[in-house]
Amino acid sequence: MRHREFWALVEEVFGAAYGRTLAADQVLGALGNRTAAQAIEDGDEPRTVWHALCDALEVPEARRWGTDTYRAAPPRG
């Protein structure tokens, strides 16, 4: 998963404004008590950050990948 794909999913799954707010404000224990945005800035793998964000917010697997039926779910790393 690339950074642009991460941010596109954030906006698609959570909404443009709310998704950016979540990424900037939601502290995630799975990311060492950092936000998703901090983890991305620190160079963490976007796939790992995406899974941590979705897990913390209990996003069902069926909703995690947006509406693009051709989008492959990135494997957990």
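The record above closes out task 2.4. Task 2.5 opens with a second protein, given below.
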Amino acid sequence: MNKGLPEGFLWGGATAANQCEGAYLEGNKGLSTVDVIPAGKDRFPVMFGKLKMFECDKEHFYPSHEAIDFYHHYKEDIALFAEMGFKCFRMSLAWTRIFPNGDDIEPNEEGLKFYDEVFDECLKYGIEPLVTITHFDVPMNLVKTIGAWKSRKMVDYYERLCKVIFSRYKNKVKYWLTFNEINMVLHIPFVGAGLTFEAGENEEAVKYQVAHNQLIGSAKATKIAREISPEFKIGCMLAAGNTYANTSAPEDVWKSIEKDRENYFFIDVQSRGEYPNYAKKFFERNNISVKMEEGDKELLKNNTVDFISFSYYSSRLTSADPEVNKETAGNAFATLRNPYLKASEWGWQIDPLGLRITMNSIYDRYQKPIFIVENGLGAVDSPDENGYVEDDYRIEYLREHVKAMIDAVNEDGVELMGYTPWGCIDLVSASTGEMKKRYGFIYVDKDNEGKGTLKRSKKKSFYWYKNVIESNAEKL
């Protein structure tokens, strides 16, 4: 039995424009949702769409404004990725670099040129860009003027963005993802779709209408991509992780199925091309009426994705008993504490076998190639005077997850395209806005208050991952 992974496997790492680029108004870039999300106590109310903050003020610190300044360091950073042996670099485009207001007629040439240079730098080293079209990124002008994805007009603006980038980069980029973690609109609506809520609004109904608009956007992107280049491979992207039942009580098992469906709903539509019956029944029960336009059903049916990509950090646990089902810390998902698992410093439960379970669940469900585009451990690193970090805890986390991934491929026959661990270089945490919650193989000298030299240095995990890629995971 092959111990490693198939030849041509896309090893790499993942970032997002809003967490690494910085230079938030340079090169004619417009203001984006992430640019008005502060660090500190107001962060979560803004992310959940409960507190409206449409401008920046002097009282708050906004981590995205400088982030790790990839905008000015991309050559150095990509050279480090190449040194590790990356075959693939997952990154996203900042919508407002290309259309500063979102509704501009003509794109911003300076922004387009920046991404040309980033892609050229990747290709120079033989690194395939894997590009997320929008990764938690909505132009603030569209939030203010049309309510962002609440409005069907957003589909037209998104379509315009897709036409421009697909045409411009068709000889440089082959792999595209339509929306990052599309299911996050249900959990962190301002981050996922630029949503804010008015008093008395049926929030659940709004979220599912927005989901429909994004699903239509995704299908249109897929259609345009195929018209522009038959070489393109288009994927969807899910925040994944199976939900376990707290006990073997059938009620708990049923609850876990319902929880998983909440997230699979989006991918069911993107991969199978129609709304699943369980979703239609859920809408009926909850008095949700999703407004569809003529031709929507055909559009969804005829433009399904080529592959399924997902993030995996941990599994989840749920109970049917409301008394038991008290929330704990974790990613944007509420989950019970699993007594069989250890947790990270941020309360995320570490479950490598859960990755194999999730891979099998997704592959069994869709029978399309899958791609793990995020996985990693957020931890506090303590560098020595040279910026070197002995991050054995990160190596251990990744090693166990890579083993589980290999088992899913070699023992279970799951078709896996690649693996791009999250935050291959330290960047701003999407959830907490912190720098101290680090994921990278590369340390960036910057703290939570935004102070530091931005100097890059290699951690112990840098050399470990270089070895993994070189040996195609035969040396872990």
